[in-house]
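Notebook, p. 212. Picked up where the previous page left off. The plan for this session was modest: take the two constructs that came back from the sequencing core last week, fold each one, and keep the raw output in the notebook itself so nobody has to go hunting through shared drives later. Recording the first one now, exactly as returned: residue sequence, then the structure token string.
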Amino acid sequence: MNFSVVVPVYNRPEEVDELLASLTRQTLKNFEVIIAEDGSVRKCDEVVRKYTSSLPILYFEKPNSGPGETRNVAAARARYDYLIFFDSDCIIPEHYMEKVSSSLAENFVEAYGGPDKALPSFTTVQKAINYSMTSFFTTGGIRGGERSLDKFHPRSFNLGVSRKAFRDLGGYGKMRFGEDIDFSLRLIENGYKTALIPEAYVYHKRRSTYRQFFKQVYNSGIARINLYLSHPDSLKPVHFLPSLFVVAMLLSLFISIFFPYGLLVPALYSSLVLIDATAKNGSLKVGLSSIAAAWTQLFGYGTGFIVAFWKRLILKEGEFKAFEKKFYE
């Protein structure tokens, strides 16, 4: 089986360089690469040129329209019958294509997803953010790589899908944030089998500052309510936990004004994160940074969820977005 690797790019030439370099080291060369420049100011055309002799690459530019629409435009140019979507800030382990090929040969599914990990070369903040996105003590859950295959929801930073299924669904929808979850939900609702391939992991850099990370997860909280309005069964009790965390921690801080023991609740949580993150990363520095990352994630997602819940479900207002124009700043 051959694959068409699709990568939407927005102002990330350095990351694309690392991504393409990792693709040249694949043990199986059964793929093409499509780089879609989504209205970037800092283009990656010069970077792509470095790899045209070692990789089959198609590069093109288009006006900015967001990752979902850009993936659709790029997928329309694919030559092969199975698409693989990566985010531009991913680095791909050399065995990736080999593992995916063998997994699909043994158990073919119309769509799959894989976990993400951090490289030792990542910055302390990137390692901390990676921890917060994969930890039991935040909202990481199955993103860390659990082996459940039942109705797995692939995320588009590391997602494969047959071109037939992609076309049948009309590709990604028009949502600016949460478009990958919407796509996964539509796959399952239309009867397509999905799977997690634990060995098909990628090294995902994510955001490089807590400010960028807050904007990302805040929009994810908003997206969860938008997804609920399109897919009512998608909203689960677990999605309320970050909001409950926000309320509980603010209440604890308020109580501590009168009873200092109220500070024990946030202190206990921070201690659990510190111990767990330090053990998993073998670094106290990463452990300390993971406290900030975990609080940023839960407060960002939780407050975005609360605002969207109030505006969309209580006040019945229309869809809205935050940080859209300055998402990467």
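Okay, moving on. Second construct, recorded in the same format:
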Amino acid sequence: MPPPQEDRSLPLADPHPTPLSLSIIIPMLNEAAGIQATLTRLQLLRASGVELIVVDGGSTDASVALAAPLADTVLKSEPGRARQMNLGAQNARGLALLFLHADTRLPPDKEQRAVTNLQQAVAQHAWGRFDIQLAGKSRWLPVVASLMNLRSRLSGIATGDQGIFVRRDTFFALGGFPDQPLMEDIELSKRLKAHSSPACLRQKVISSGRRWDEFGAWPTIRLMWRLRYRYWRGVSATQLAKEYRDAR
């Protein structure tokens, strides 16, 4: 049984945005340890006209103060990654949107090439994602990343760690991210896949493997597969989010 349908009506803050090639939207929560480094790597793109939007979900550390000088806009949102990314999209001016986690970075020293490939992919497919590389201590992280890339390529479903990108008009037409506390990336991918096949770029974003390092590679793999299976079986995202928090 599929999960309950969410309300897909997402307001568009500005129906006539100033044309920009791309807006990068970064949700964050207590990312003071890394947000400066994440945004600093994107400054050349920002100088070339890419819009950087950071959406804070209620940080209690210095995240907002650290992000403000390095972003075009820093917004404050109710907690919840889906809500944060939707708010960022509503305030974005780019014709394409890239949702980038605070601990994920574009291919080092090849950011401009990644943006060019993204723009070409969006023109042909309307949406897509990058391959992923996990950075961390566990020797299993390359295996985990390879399996994530393979699964995504076979299923046509992307995760937020892979840097989902989408045409702005397509994103709003499909209602944006569903307002749910977990699996919002999976649900959006399903909607987008029904619209068109994704562009699966082989360039690799680098994402933190901290959850695998902290909780162990195989326990984390088992947990994530169990949660995905239960979501596919119709268990609510709210219940799964509780189980995820309890497991951690």
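Notes on construct two before I forget. The beta strands are 23-28, 51-56, 73-76, 96-99, 104-105, 127-135, 164-167, 199-208.
Flagging for discussion at group meeting.
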